[in-house]
Each structure stands twice: as structure tokens, then as C-alpha cells.
Amino acid sequence: MKINDSTTESNIMEAAxxxxxxxxxxxxxxxxxxxxxxxxxxxxxxxxxSKDKLFEAVFIDAFVxxxxxxxxTLNSNSPLFRKIEVFVDHYIDVLSKxxxxxxxxxxxxxxxxxxxxxxxxxxxxxxxxxxxQVKAEIEAxxxxxxxxxxxxxxxxxxxxxxxxxxxxxxxxLFKNNEEEYHEFLNRxxxxxxxxxxxxxxxx
Amino acid sequence: MKINDSTTESNIMEAAxxxxxxxxxxxxxxxxxxxxxxxxxxxxxxxxxSKDKLFEAVFIDAFVxxxxxxxxTLNSNSPLFRKIEVFVDHYIDVLSKxxxxxxxxxxxxxxxxxxxxxxxxxxxxxxxxxxxQVKAEIEAxxxxxxxxxxxxxxxxxxxxxxxxxxxxxxxxLFKNNEEEYHEFLNRxxxxxxxxxxxxxxxx
DNA sequence: CAATGGTTTAACCTTTGAGTTAATCCGTGT
DNA sequence: ACACGGATTAACTCAAAGGTTAAACCATTG
Lengths: 203, 203
Known about the structure:
The structure is a homodimer.
Chain A: H1 7-27, H2 30-37, H3 41-47, H4 51-71, H5 80-97, H6 101-111, H7 113-123, H8 128-139, H9 148-164, H10 166-174, H11 178-200
Helix pairs in contact in A: 1-2, 1-4, 1-6, 2-3, 5-9, 5-11, 6-7, 9-11
The structure holds a DNA duplex.
């Protein structure tokens, strides 16, 4: 018997991810995913019993590969300002290579809330270390007082929003010019970090 | 013959908007919209010829009712800092009452880019006045240099992201407590404006 | 080499959902 | 009173999409 070399399975996962990310759960077609993977539709159901199951697998995979690798920078032990710089730079960089992932995750999360808590428990997102660090800096008087959660939300917002809002921003602010938008994102790696640090830095 | 009192038509629009916003174009069902409106499915097609047409009408309506009323604050002639305060407060307030609209607009825009340019032309979004104001303030030396478009993106991000990211933020930062999240949003009306102003204010 | 069993496929089944049709309802003008 | 015509409906059509089935394929092993 053939060893399950799982090349087919991961092949399916990759194809399914591309389609799901592009079209969303409802918009994706099993046939389309099969085509993308270069296989028969029945084989999808052989490996993943249903569209739901396939989506679940793809979503968890995308989520797990994505969110933690970014939040991990938050738990390093760099000094705060340096950490913010690295976080923003790294995050925007990763998002540039996967521009549709955030929209995908946020959209599907918004439409299937139950899914989330299961995943969170699996992955274990925990901002406590960052929160403590910010508190300590405030105590020490090196930055202006701010709710650490606010700060974190702001950091995330500054990085993610340019990607989920890209279609409208590109048209309204950049004459629909892709090249200009790309440059904007590159400048933003530094500008956004600067903007955040400026705001909390004591002067 | 009965006068077209259009109560049915706007009734359909309202119902369709609720369903579309909640489930997205692909996820919404014509039958479901008919039920929501308390009418027969064929009547949907009588008023709006197809699902696409109905969606188009709903989307434009949502977009037009939404985006400009917010950007209008940007074209007032308040001084910059005041303008930022009003913008953030007003925007978060409106979003609190329509929490699913931004996700809806961003998602559908991301999946049907052609739609956008048509609408933009109809509505006429124009940030020039704000951009000029910011440039003038920089010239006058009253704020730190910043690309006005960056500033605008930041303002939008700070307001919108807490809504599109709500599911995950609520779980990770607020123990899935709705009440706490609501308070967070309220504090944010002031905190976000402060954060932005802090960053650009010259000291 | 033939039996085994995981893998893959073509063809089929079933349900669902968008859209159509033909008939009915009912307010209005004559 | 009745004919006209827009508004509304029940019942239908048709295509697409998710899922199933039974057979074929082929690498391994005894």
C-alpha cells in the first residue's frame, strides 16, 4: 500500500487556503478548490469530509501560522521603543507578503464567533508580558500614562488597517496607483512606529 | 391603480441591508431577505431584478449614508486638534450604532473592486481640504511633520479597527466581556484622539 | 503473480437557491 | 358596476453546488 506521503493533503490545504482567502467560505466552491489543487472533487471529501471540515482546517492553519509569529515579538525582552519598532516593521512586512490574510481572518471570525475561543485556547495568545512591560515603563515615568491594551490595539490598528482598507484607501488617497500604495506601505514601517512612539514618549 | 407608496421598496431595502450586512453577499439568501421583509420572494425580483441589483442598491445606500457623513467633519473649518477630537468622537459614536457596517463595506469592497470606483465618483470623497490644512499646520510649525495621508489613515485605523477586530480583541484583551468592551470603546473616544494629538503636537 | 488496501476518478444523487410564470388581488378611474 | 393595471403570490424551472458511490488504479507484500 502507498505510504500516506501527505503531499496530496498539504497540496489540498494550500489550494484551499488560496481559494478560501480570496473568496471567503461562502464564496468558495469545492470544485474550484479541486481544480486549483489539480484533483478530483471527490478526493476533497476523501481527505476532508466536508466543506466545513476543510475550512476549519485551513482557517486554523492560517491563524496559527499567522497570529502567533507576530505576537511573539511582543514577548521578547527588548526595551519598549525598540520592541514597537520591530513589531511594526515585522508585522507590515509579513502582511505585505500575505495581504489578504487579515481580512480573511477578521471576516470569518466575525461570522463564526464560536470558532474563535476554541482556537485561542489551542494557540494561547497572551498579551500579559507586554501589558506588564508597559505598566512598568509608566511607573518608571519613561512614557506617558496609557492603558496598555489601548496601546496594543493602536499598534495592531496601525499595521492591519492599511491592508483591510486597501481598496478604498488606494482609490481615495493614491489615485488607484498600486506602486504608490506599495511605497506608502514601505514608508509606513518606520512612520507608524514613529507615530506611536511619539505619542507615548515623555518629552 | 395603486400609487407606488414605496413603503414596500424601502421595506425591502432595510431588510436586505440587515441580511447582507450580517451575512455578506454570498452568505445571504433571497428567501431569507424576503422572509425578513415579510413578503414573497418573487416580489424581490419584481422590485429589484436580481440579487446583484439588490445588493448594489443596498451597498451604495449603506456606503453613501455612511462614509460621507463621517468625512464631512474633515471638511469643516475647525482648527486641527479640535477637528481630530470631533472626528474620533463622532466616528466611534456612529460606528457603535452600526458596528457591522465597516466590516461589511471593507469586505465587499475587497471582493469586488470594480464597484468602488463607480461609487467614489458618485459620492465624491475628497480629502484635499484636510490635507491642505495639515500641510499648513506643518508649515506654521504648530505640529510635527507628517504625511497628511498617513495621519488620515491613522485616524481612520484608530476608529475602525476596534470594530472590525472586535471578536478577537474582545477575547484576547477583555475576557470576552461585552460590557468591558463597550466601556473600552467609550474611553476610546477621548483616548484615541488624545493619542493622535499627542503624537503630532509640538512640545 | 495475485491478493490487499489505500488512493483516485467518473458518474450520479440530492438539495438548495436564483429567477420565472401565470394567476390573483385590489385600488382607481370611467 | 366593471375594466384596467400595478402589486403580490403560489408554484414552477433550471442550474449549480455539496456530497456519495462504485469502480479503477497502483504500490506493497506474502
